[in-house]
Write a structure and sequence with these properties.
The chain is an all-alpha fold and 173 residues long. Helix 5 packs antiparallel against helix 6, helix 7 packs antiparallel against helix 8 and helix 8 runs antiparallel to helix 9. The longest helix has 29 residues. It is elongated, with a radius of gyration of 27 Å. The relative contact order is 0.05.
Length: 173
Amino acid sequence: MYTRRLANTASGPLIDTITILLGLTVGASTQASEFLTLDSIKIFGLGALSFVIATASGVIFQEAIADYDYETALILIAKEKTTIPLLLQKGKAQRGLGLNAEALSTYQEIIANDTANTRAYIEAAECCRSLAKNQQALKYYEQALDLNPENKYVRIQYINYYYLCSKFQEALG
């Protein structure tokens, strides 16, 4: 226990404090003519350039991810033979487009063909939540918990939904 705490401290606050103190010490004891040379300015410039490139790359990557085309995905899925994994992707695309009622139908189709698919029950419950079908959402969460009682995500969502519905006794029980 103490080893982990020591490692966390050494890799976080302690290293930050040492870095600041070292920077202050070197900065206070070094003459500007020795420190501000052409080589050190090049190093600062390269550091700034790498920061700009990393930031720009991150922004561009995020935009590429955000532009996932759900409509194209639905068209491609419609051309393929229906399988459970494709239906799960279809439901995800429908939810991404805000078509929660259609997504719920897709997840219900999965459940009809695979009654042991915990993920389909979870996704169906999420669709029901967005459609304000509270009782149906709770039933889907219960079915997911029956299939996998150790699923912490489902348990938390189930308890949270009881809490949101102001059913505090049920949430605790």
